[in-house]
Every structure is written in C-alpha cells, then in structure tokens.
Specification:
The chain is mainly α. It is built from eleven helices and five strands, in the order βββαβαβααααααααα. It has a three-stranded antiparallel beta sheet, with helices on one face. Strands 4-5 form a two-stranded parallel ribbon. A hairpin with a 2-residue loop joins strand 1 and strand 2. It is globular, with a radius of gyration of 19 Å.
Length: 235
C-alpha cells in the first residue's frame, strides 16, 4: 500500500498478490492531517474490503504509520528512502552534498542490515557534528527506513521507494494543471476519476514484469512473499 499527496487529493495504491496495481481510493486533504485523519483513511480501506496489508510503503507523514498498525497490526511499514534522502539534503550545504551522498549510499545500499547500521554509525562520526539534524533523522526513523533489509533483493527494489505512486501522481498533475480552478470539490473528483481511468488502462501486466534482467520478475517476488508471509498471502 502506498500513499502520496496530490494537491488536495490523497491517493492510496495497492498491489495484489498477482502483482497488479490499482488505486484503492482518493481522499480530500485539508492540509492538517494527523493520526485521526489517517485512521479514517485506513479504516475506510478495511470497510471496503481490504483484509490485510503485508507491506506498506509510505513517505513518513505524522500519524500514518500508527494508523496502519492500529487497523492492520501485522503490517511491515517501509518509509520511502528517496524521500528521506531529499529531506536530509535540505540540511546539507551544497558544497558537502556530493561527499555526504557518497557516504550515505553505503548505508541504504548495504547488503545487510548489520552492514547498514555499521555504516550509519560511521556516517554519524563523519558528519554528525556538522549536520546533526540530517543524521538524527536517519537514526530516529531507522526502524521504518530499514524494513526492506528484511527481504531479498528483488523485493527490496519494489518497496524501498514510493516511485510507483509518484509516477501516477505526475500523470494526474498533467491533467489537473491545465484546467485552472474548480468550482467545487466534486468537479475535481470527477476529473481525477476520468484521468485515473485513462492511466489505469496501461496497467495490464504485473508489477515489475519486464524483460530486462536487472528488474525482477513478479513470479520470483511472489514465491519470496509466500515464504515470508505464509498463509497471510491469499492468491
């Protein structure tokens, strides 16, 4: 399950056991979302038929992870690493960003969690005095940032970032930005729905089902998920 804000609209994308994507819903954002709002979103998903969420890929807005665990307590939450990197770089002087990123890559591209944590300690030793806020953010959020280390490489590539929902939102923005202001929220919702229908027409193959050898086949991912989650994975 993935979520991302698009202006005043919040979209949640799901990937089923067969690897197919779908948008599970859009919700209107008021700009002050917290635990209660996210809880209403996740509860709505449950009431409309979502029985379980194995892995939730989120971008770390306050209260969203707590809301997921309140409704689906067994869900493993992965915070988007790309969003975390962008957030970190806001606190790094431009002259140091290249060197900082070189050291940071040893953390999120490590082969194992133990290696990543060792490199995170080294990152703190090197940059902690100068850029304490950036280092502290990785340390404080490490539990959710490092979830993908629980899985084999093929699954890691799918869950460590929310790129799938980002791409969906970019396509929606292309439609919305040409329409100017909307007289009311219903008209905006109708436009988003029609745009979604056009986008979803292209979702005809399982997630990551490609011919390139460096992109994992969904069948391999499915077998790994079955081992990991057992009876929770309903085909």
């Amino acid at each position: 399950m993935r979520r991302r804000i698009l202006g005043a609209s919040i979209a949640v994308m799901g990937v089923d056991a067969n690897g197919y994507r779908d948008i599970l819903g859009h919700w209107v954002s008021t700009g002050g979302e917290g635990l209660n709002f996210w809880l209403s979103v996740v509860t709505d998903l449950q009431s409309r038929g979502v029985q379980d969420v194995l892995i939730a890929c989120v971008d770390g807005l306050e209260g969203f992870s707590e809301a997921i665990h309140a409704v689906f307590p067994l869900t493993e939450v992965q915070r988007c690493v790309i969003h975390q990197i962008r957030s970190s770089l806001r606190y790094i002087a431009s002259k140091d960003q290249k060197a900082f990123m070189r050291d940071l890559k040893t953390v999120y591209k490590a082969g194992t969690r133990a290696e990543a944590e060792e490199n995170l300690l080294k990152l703190g030793e090197t940059w902690g005095d100068k850029y304490a806020i950036a280092i502290r953010s990785w340390e404080n959020n490490w539990h959710e940032l490092s979830t993908f280390f629980n899985f084999p490489a093929q699954i890691r590539r799918v869950i460590y970032t929310t790129n799938a929902i980002e791409a969906y939102n970019r396509q929606l923005r292309k439609v919305v930005k040409t329409k100017g202001a909307f007289p009311h929220s219903d008209s905006a919702a109708k436009l988003l729905y029609l745009a979604h229908l056009n986008i979803a027409k292209k979702w005809t193959r399982p997630q990551r089902q490609r011919s390139r050898s460096d992109i994992p086949n969904w069948a391999l991912i499915l077998n790994q998920l079955a081992i990991r989650f057992g009876d929770r994975l309903t085909l």
